[in-house]
Amino acid sequence: MSLYCRFKGSLGQFELDAEIELPESGVSVLFGPSGCGKTSLLRCLAGLNRLEGQFDINGESWQSDEYFLPVHKRPVGYVFQEASLFPHLSVRANLLFGHKRVKKTQNANGYISFDRLIELLSLGPLLERSVVRLSGGERQRIAIARALLTNPRLLLMDEPLSALDSHNKAEIIRYLERLQRELTIPIVYVTHSHEEVSRLADYVVVMDAGKTVAAGEVNAIFSRLDLPIQHDEIAGSVLNGVVAEADPQWGLVRIEVTGESIWSRDTGLQPGDHVRVRVLARDVSIALNPLVGSSILNCLRAQITEIKDDAAHSIALVQIKISNADGEQYIVARLSRRSISQLDLQVGKKIWAQIKSVAVM
Amino acid sequence: MLDAILLTLKLASVTTVILLLLGIPLAWWLSRSGSWWSEVVSTLVALPLVLPPTVLGFYLLILLSPTSAPGQMIESLIGFRLPFTFAGLVVGSVVYSMPFVVQPIRNAFDAMGERPMEVAATLRASPLNAFFNVAIPLASSGILTGTVLGFAHTVGEFGVVLMIGGNIPGETQVLSIAIYDYVETMNWEMAHLLSLMMLVFSFLVILIMNLSEKKLRKRLA
Predict the structure, then answer these.
(1) Residue A335 near chain B (CB below 8 Å)
(2) Mutation site, B112, B114, B118, B124, interface A, largest A CB count within 10 A
(3) Which of A111, A278, B139, B196 is the most exposed place for a label (fewest CB within 10 A)?
């Protein structure tokens, strides 16, 4: 853990009281409903909001009780919700705005060159254009490149996809995944979208009403039953898997998830690809025996690890575990309370989990 | 006549330069400061919009006159008396035209919002650097409007000039005063000529301002 911060104070009507530790690499997502304080927290990390607190990154202090490093002296890249390009500058001048203000000595670690970044984000054809007539996706790509060209040691992204239509969103997500593979710096990403968090997050911090509620690995967080996120209609678990084989006859691929097989529609995946599989809690049902004569493809051996009777929502949430020698992963099933009672489901019981549909990320 | 024209242009140019140097930082402060007394300052700046120029000129005359304490202080500081000199005219014009420069620039800064300066800061620009490289260019249409209005308004002033400048040819006799003088002495021909020149000048200034502002806005839209 090499990024630690705590902030406490009010911003207008709003109280923020958060303390987090984040891993030194990968994508950490601040996740929660609108107005929960995730953007305020991100702005505190950048120094755009100033609250009392502390912020250390890789053993260096950016803020403490006596010290506050101003925004323009922090080696951060910040991508805002709207691209916020400078309209009086060309695309190239926008990209170079921060780049030329960075001391060359700061170019050391994790540096991606201008040319490489232009290539990664396909910005070549846009360089000499004015920023006025660009699509939302193009604008956001430029904003991302502009932030990265300052050679930041921390990249902060505030719902960078929320102002985009679904087509542009999908495009930017692909670019982000590409970047994720090249970047060695930590990324802190704010979103309220289940899809974005399942696709991009390595580590998740769940926030609610200005406080951090939970933090951990993606699979662990999204299979916890005590978090308010489970009440979302589209709540679900995220599993890590590897593509094992393709079945061209039926256009399917088999994905291995800690020893169990999940079949999914083949979208051009190659054996050996690491993928994320998202399983909605409402798409999981539980049987005491493996089902025969069912159209459902995916039936996994699992064990019940936790049951939460949620009378307020007249449902029960069941956490189940699939495991092998490599480790274990958890899935959440949303069942009726009557089923729990009729099947006599209890913690420790071995069951079969049927999954009606999965989404490969 | 040529004297009056040159003097007018000189007065308007000097006044506009001073107004920009004072007005841009002032407009920025008014736009960003949340304090209640910035509104008091804003009201003071706007006063010449409603006060009769003679009232303004009267107070300035009293304030700058050698019989008043501030007037004596200024005189001992700069070594000469301000009333009925060109420098005195500049002081009066700066006060009189201030709202026409500050208001459009402040509006442009307001319209810009906080975001561009935040972006600039995350891109390592210091506040001063961001002010010159982001805030000023983004407010350029407001600054242009302020410049033109400040210049044109100074060319057209009469009451303040008469009160603190008087009517000294080559020193304080600007165009508007010269026209008044010609009318008083029934020199209709010269009055016609100068008035027509003022009319054409004013029309052209405002037309050019409108056209270039439109162009600027289009570029930044």
Answers:
(1) no
(2) B124
(3) B196
The ipTM estimated for the assembled molecules is 0.85
pLDDT tens digits, one per residue of B173-213: 888 888 998 999 999 999 999 999 989 988 998 898 888 88
User: With an 8 Å Cβ cutoff, is A68 touching chain B?
Assistant: no
3 state SS for chain A: CCEEEEEEEEECCEEEEEEEEECCCCEEEEECCCCCCHHHHHHHHHCCCCCEEEEEECCEEEECCCCECCHHHCCEEEECCCCCCCCCCEHHHHHHHHHCCCCHHHHCCCCCCHHHHHHHCCCHHHCCCECCCCCHHHHHHHHHHHHHCCCCCEEEEECCCCCCCHHHHHHHHHHHHHHHHHCCCCEEEEECCHHHHHHHCCEEEEEECCEEEEEEEHHHHHCCCCCHHHHCCCCEEEEEEEEEEEECCCCEEEEEECCEEEEEECCCCCCCCEEEEEEEHHHEEEECCCCCCCCCCEEEEEEEEEEEEEHHHCEEEEEEEEEECCEEEEEEEEECHHHHHHHCCCCCCEEEEEECCCEEC
* Min Cα separation A304/chain B (Å): 48
Q: Is A4 on the interface with B (CB under 8 A)?
A: no
Identify whether A230 is part of a domain.
no
User: Per the CB < 8 Å rule, is A86 touching B116?
Assistant: yes
CATH number of the domain encompassing residue A257:
2.40.50.100
Residue A60 maps to a domain = yes
Query: Do the domain assignments include residue A323?
Result: yes
**How many structural domains comprise chain A?**
2
Last residue of a domain, one of A163, A197, A222: A222
pLDDT digits (tens, 9 = 90+) for A246-258: 888 988 899 999 9
The pLDDT value recorded for residue A133 is 84
Q: Based on the fold, state whether residues A141 and A80 are members of the same structural domain.
A: yes
Q: Which domain holds residue A288?
A: 236-360
Contact B121 A84 (CB under 8 A): no
Instruction: Please check whether residue A228 lies inside any domain of the structure.
Output: no
Give pLDDT, residue B112: 93
Instruction: Give the domain-ending residue among A182, A200, A222.
Output: A222
Residue B137 to residue A88, Cβ atoms within 8 A: yes
Convert the pLDDT of each residue in A158-184 to its tens digit. Answer: 999 988 888 888 888 888 888 888 888
Check if CATH label 1.10.3720.10 holds for domain B2-220.
Answer: yes
pLDDT digits (tens, 9 = 90+) for A79-118: 999 989 999 999 999 999 998 888 765 555 556 788 888 8
Same domain? For A103 and A176 the reply is yes
The reply to whether A212 and A262 lie within a common domain is no
At residue A109, the pLDDT reads: 54
B123·A76 Cβ contact <8 A: no
A307 and A162 share one domain? no
Is residue A31 predicted with pLDDT exceeding 70? yes
B118 with A147: Cβ contact below 8 A: no
Please tell me whether residues A249 and A216 are part of one structural domain: no
Sort out which chain A residues have CB atoms less than 8 A from B215's CB and list them: none
